[in-house]
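Sat 14:20. Reprocessing the chain from the morning session after the first attempt stalled halfway. Input below, unchanged.
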Amino acid sequence: MRQNLRWLASVELVIGILGESAYYQNGEGFSLVDIAIVNEFGSDDGRIPERAAHRTTFREQKAAMLRRMNGVIRLTIDGKSPSQALDKLGLYYTAKLRAQIIAWSIPANAPATIAKKGADNPLIDTGRTLNATQHKVRKK
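Finished this time. Tokens:
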């Protein structure tokens, strides 16, 4: 049990655009992380409005995540390995975040953006950012 608790204290669960996919550049020289940040907070010039899918998901899922994390701690105290439970927690939250990105509709895209993309989903163009959204358990 102590070994598992030490391991649990030495790792963190990160969720977002991770690894090499984070640095993929589109034709305009923006990385997937750049695109996600602009979508989340809006552009400085105001042309792209804030669409806070990440912060909204965190706010909506905070209580459920805390309950699930308490479950991971209880399993660890009971002598079970926390690794699989922590991975499941990451899968759960990543699925919730992806669902939020897919469902996000306000504010809608501008008519010129809809014409360029061929669709009106504000947070999805090619799907690369959505598909790159993942989780990882890593050492602190």
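Helices lie at 2-9, 32-41, 53-77, 82-103, 111-117, 128-132.
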